[in-house]
Amino acid sequence: MAISAAREVRILTISLAVSVGLALVALGLGLALGIRVLVFDGAFGVIGIATTWMAIAAVKIAREAPTRLNPFGRAAVTPLVVAAQGVAALAALVVAVGDAVIVILDGGEEVQMGAVVAYGIAVAVVSTGMAIWLGLIRSDLVHAESLEWRGGAIRAAMVAVAAVAAILIAAASWHGLLPYVDPVLVLASCALVAPMPISLVRTGVRELLEGAPPPEVSARVTAAVESAAAEFGLHDEHLIRSSKLGNRLNLEVLFRVEPGCTIERQDLVRRHILRELEPLEMEIWSTVELTTEQTLD
């Protein structure tokens, strides 16, 4: 079901609080023990904190009523923040990859990881739990937050893997490999996490450019229009244009009809389509027009 602004803010605030705690632990351990994969995890967490704060602000801004200066409202702030979250995460990945490559080229850096296994497992469990919980909430901003937590679970799991790998390598007396464990695991973590921010950027930019809504929304729109056409005998050609902007669906439908159709009939068609779209639980800005024009464009 649709989520209220107050609940959305409350959920994002809980996520923010948990992120702050985990980021402080990661940075503290990483800097104290000199473990890059932990510092990377903590730095990523700090970026997540900033973008979560942006998301909380976006919830309130996106739901503001239209004004004279913003007659169409500010729904665009939602995909803008989603894209910004992805860009910020990608920037952190680029920095982490560059740092790891430099360390490898310099001959690696040996670190003590025995005490980090528990950290990696604990954070992976917490992050997975947060990702699953947030993934159940129907909201673009909360979905973006869920992807960040999924990435956090992957990074934490890689921390645990790095620690276990270092212990096994040391036990096998392969000391020449030990300095490369940390930077290699950073690179692996980046490769696994990268698709998530890329997805956020793609989704946000597509909505800002007024691209077509997701397939499930488009399918519902098509079904609603076909239902109206069948109900009112509108069997001639029709045209559908739709785009998604945050929680708002912009919809334009044109039906070609024979002369004599009334405004009342047009209103009935529009109301029918809106009723069919109610299960989407989105704010729908619709234009439904019956025309005798031979060309629909």
Question: Which SSEs are present, and which pair or pack?
Answer:
Elements: H1 5-33, H2 36-62, H3 77-105, H4 117-135, H5 140-171, H6 178-193, H7 195-208, H8 215-231, E1 238-245, E2 248-256, H9 263-276, E3 283-291
Parallel strand pairs: 2-3
Antiparallel strand pairs: 1-2
Helix pairs in contact: 1-2, 1-4, 2-3, 2-5, 3-6, 3-7, 4-5, 5-6, 8-9
Distance between the first and last residues' Cα: 35 Å
What pattern of helices and strands is seen along the backbone? HHHHHHHHEEHE
Structural class: mainly alpha
Percent of residues in β-strands: 5-15%
Return the CATH topology of the largest domain.
Alpha-lytic protease prodomain-like
Low-confidence stretches: none
How would you describe the shape? elongated
Number of helices: 9
GO cellular component, one term: membrane
GO molecular function, one term: monoatomic cation transmembrane transporter activity
Membrane topology: Multi-pass membrane protein
Protein name: Cation efflux family transporter
Written overview of the protein:
- The protein has 2 domains: 5-208, Alpha-lytic protease prodomain-like (Up-down Bundle); 215-291, 2-Layer Sandwich (Alpha-Beta Plaits), CATH 3.30.70.1350.
- It is mainly alpha-helical and 297 residues long.
- The chain has helices at residues 5-33, 36-62, 77-105, 117-135, 140-171, 178-193, 195-208, 215-231, 263-276; strands at 238-245, 248-256, 283-291.
- It contains 9 helices and 3 strands.
- The protein has a 3-stranded mixed β-sheet with strand order 1-2-3.
Concise overview:
The chain is mostly helical and 297 residues long. Helix content is 66%, strand content 9%. The chain folds into two domains: 5-208, Alpha-lytic protease prodomain-like (Up-down Bundle), CATH 1.20.1510; 215-291, Alpha-Beta Plaits (2-Layer Sandwich).
